[in-house]
Amino acid sequence: MNALGLIRRRFVSALLSWCDDRGDLFLDGSPGDGPAGEGPASDRKTAQSESAWALAELVLPSQDARFGDYQANCPMPLGKRLGMPPREVAQQLVAHLEIDDFCEPPTIAGPGFINMWLKDSWLIEQLQQAVDDGPRLGVLPVANPRKFVVDYSSPNVAKPMHVGHIRSTVIGDAICRVLKFLGHQVISDNHLGDWGTQFGMIIYGYKHFVDEESLQRDAVAELSRLYQLVHGLIAYQDARNQQWPTLQQKIVEQEQKISQAQVASDCGSAVEFGTAPPSGGVPAADDPKQGKNAAKRLRQAKNKLAEFRAQEEALRQITAAVEDDPQRSAQSAAHPDIRAAALAETAALHEGDATNVALWNRFLPSCRVEIEKTYERLGVAFDHTLGESFYHDQLAGVVASLTERGLVQESDGAKCVFLEGIQAPLIIQKQDGAYLYATTDLATIQYRMQRWSPDAILYVVDHRQALHFRQLFATARRWAYPDVELEHISFGTVLGEDGKPYKTRSGTAVGLSGLLDEAVRRAHAIVSANDDARPEPLLPADQRQKVAEQIGIGAIKYADLAHNRTSDYVFSYDKMLAMTGNTAAYLQYSYARVLSIFDRGKVDARALRTLAAPILINSPTERALAVALLQFCEALQRLVDDFRPNHLTSYLFQLASRYSEFFEQCPVLKADSEECRTSRLLLCDLTARTIRQGLNLLAIDVAERM
Ligand code: ARG
């Protein structure tokens, strides 16, 4: 049972009944200046109830057990709105609040906090239900299940998957699992990029550079080589022909700016320190403030130049990769505009050119096999993998339908949808007739609505596509789908320890499978060292390898999930594999540690659950653990409220910490009485099951021993 949800509902009732008692009370402020004051009585009621819900959201679990299990601070903002002392608001609220069926009488603290404690008897009753409740652990399915389509992972195939793909895959998977666990209907759809320019690149590569023998032997490796080759040549030519000259120009201009700023700044400091030269060529600034500004401008100009120099260095590396390699140089000379040539291959594919379509059909399966391997390793599976290619035939219809709705305008020959409040239009067809990413996404929405009519479609895609999704959603609403909830579940970048996007030493994005291998290798070393340190090692070699996989891959996933998804995060093997702190390894270890009690005491946990033995709460640490166990469902609800998996990782970390305090202070196998021992074993069992289920919802495995 979700205690927080229950308390919040009771708060809403209390607020509304207080309003009923006093016809002149408006929760959103004074009458007359808000929706509550005007309009028909029914509008007023809705507005009151919305305000009441918003205030009830301010009831939260307390951070400190001294201030209750839950605490409400809504009297503060409400008091301000009503012009009433918050303590008085708190008193009124408490007078209307009916929670005595499951809470102790609330207390009012400080300026007007309402502190609430669950009744031990109620808490125990809930846990007792959880004991019998298998994997659900007392978590009730939602009353109003919704249907979600979740679009995640969605890599562009034909390029190897890299570190950036892990976030969408792992976050999307966790969201799907938790939604399902809570009783929602979930359809996962991997919107593969299987139709984009990268195919033009490998088709061009195939036609000019293929090594047939390698292709026969290991198609994926050869395709990946072709992709890298063409990509490298494109990058080289772009750098040499466009970026380098532009940058050189900018550098020259910047150097001029600096020398001007230098002069201005010299004059400024001369004035400031009273050493202005007798009239030189340059007019002296006679205001010290101006002098400071000039110095600041000089600094900024120098920083800008440093930025340009760094870009120059990056370009130099790209050009060196080709120019220092005679074979590459010859290839570049022989294919002088390879970007345009590769684009032409993509266009031919899209127009149905028989050769290119045949090549695409030949290459795609190997690309998919390759990414499937990664998914298998990550334990991720999709209900559907309808790639972009699937929608190709529908694109003309999409443009026609939007045009019919009067939404399309031509701009520079391209077909565009202009949207209110968004400066850039959404382009749906280029001048040359080509369709775009956005056109496919519109066709995808149409298809998903027709096939599944979901209540919501979630897109787990990195933050750089924020504008695309704003445009897409606005267009879809005006086109035909005003009601479906469309949400971009955005996330930040994976950074290296230098604070820049995570790259290998040679500057390429790190391949996902190499990343997983390295984490497993390191986990293996840790597991082996721990086990070797035991008087009698527990794990045979194959077990070590299995545990290392669980820990290594779990570490990568967990590190990703534990960071607030909208922030960037720093990828660090050392941090993610630490045995203490908020890591998967710590939770996996906590889990194994709980199980070891059952081993040592020769207790059969299953049999224990059927005893119907009472749970006893005799000490503060027992109680704190019990409350944490009860709050599992709240963490899951929070996760689906804003689709942030870090709510669940924080919860699990807190649970494990409370367990650790309990374990230090409350002997389990050597408890004073048989009843107490049984009760504590039940708490241990619930802890282990909650950690396992929680990690399972994050697609992280546990090991019984490690
Ligand atoms: N393939 C795209 C990329 O790698 C992500 C696709 C996200 N999903 C979508 N429906 N647009 O950038």
Task: Give a short synopsis of this structure.
The chain has helices at residues 3-21, 41-56, 75-82, 86-96, 120-132, 163-181, 197-209, 212-217, 219-272, 288-323, 326-334, 338-350, 354-378, 395-404, 437-452, 466-479, 512-532, 541-562, 573-576, 584-601, 605-609, 620-630, 632-642, 646-665, 674-697, and strands spanning 59-61, 70-72, 107-109, 113-116, 147-151, 185-189, 408-411, 414-419, 422-429, 456-462, 485-491, 494-495, 569-570. It is an alpha/beta fold and 706 residues long.
How does this structure look, described?
The chain has 706 residues and is an alpha/beta fold. It is built from 25 helices and 13 strands. The protein has helices at residues 3-21, 41-56, 75-82, 86-96, 120-132, 163-181, 197-209, 212-217, 219-272, 288-323, 326-334, 338-350, 354-378, 395-404, 437-452, 466-479, 512-532, 541-562, 573-576, 584-601, 605-609, 620-630, 632-642, 646-665, 674-697, and strands at residues 59-61, 70-72, 107-109, 113-116, 147-151, 185-189, 408-411, 414-419, 422-429, 456-462, 485-491, 494-495, 569-570. A 4-stranded antiparallel sheet has the order 1-2-4-3, covered by helices on one side. A hairpin with a 3-residue loop joins strand 3 (107-109) and strand 4. The radius of gyration is 31 Å and the shape is globular.
**C-alpha Rg, in Å?**
31 Å
Number of domains: 4
Envelope shape: globular
Find the count of extended strands (DSSP E, 2+ residues). Answer: 13
Oligomer: single chain
Structural class: alpha/beta
Can you count the helices? Answer: 25
CATH third-level topology of the largest domain: Rossmann fold
